[in-house]
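Technical appendix A lists one of the benchmark inputs used to test multi-chain prediction within the project. The record comprises two sequence entries:
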Amino acid sequence: MLWTDGFGMFGRGLDPWSEFQRIENEMNRVLSRFVSPSTSDFPAVNIWTDGEETVVTTEIPGINAGAIDISVVGKTLILKGAREPDQLANGNSYHRRERWYGQFTKAIELPFTIEAEKVSAGFSNGILTIRLPRSEAEKPKKISIKSV
Amino acid sequence: MADKAKDVQKKEAGKTDIAERTRAAKIYNPDVDIIEGKDRIIVIADMPGVNENSVDITLDENVLTIYGKVDWKVPDKMKLTHAEYGVGDYQRIFTISGEINREKIEANVKDGVLRLTMPKNDAPRMRKITVNAG
């Protein structure tokens, strides 16, 4: 930024610290593109991409693989699932209860249309991995230039 | 959304919880349930990415340490374009009160969930002491 008006900044009655606040906000905004999630619904997902396909991974331990519902509509991937709470036997009590239970639904918008027929998913050690190939029709085509 | 309020973010272990490490990976605190019954204590921990060979459990005096190593590969030639969680090892340390029968501790891991069953000693070493007047 330019300090063309010098001390005028303070003279106008502005809080001099507000400028630092603005810079901090700006830094956070720039950095957040790399680190922070754009949605905060459970479960947390990581998304990997190359030009051909996208891989979505999520950590949902303790779920029965058959109880995970994955659907794809256009550019959107929808994950549904549930984990039942443990049934306490008689006379048992919780000292701590931190683990999640219940149902979840999460919709994830991807950068391109998905070839729904070719989506595959695997579940191993509580990590769900979904491979979503990009729709053939949408792949970039190389255009050759002919000399006339 | 689930019935139980969930933290979406994994909890990274605080510096004071862990000894200095030689392995370059983050450490997360797994979420646990601890259930106590008459004859046993059950510890259940969510440790996605861990299998039966990569989890280490030690009970030293009354200190129970759970450590799970996560071996994880970046998908081939792909770029991480959106990240909501980090990947790393798991560690959690508990102080166990009461007498545990060390010989009979059982542990199993299924779908990234560790379940640890610690039977209590059969004969409770409790004695009632009568207080005499006088």
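Chain B touches chain A at residues 1-4, 6, 8-10, 31-38, 42, 44-51, 74-75, 77-85, 109-113 (CB under 8 Å). The domain at 25-72+84-119 of chain B is CATH 2.60.40.790 (Immunoglobulin-like). Comparable benchmark entries are summarised in Table A2.
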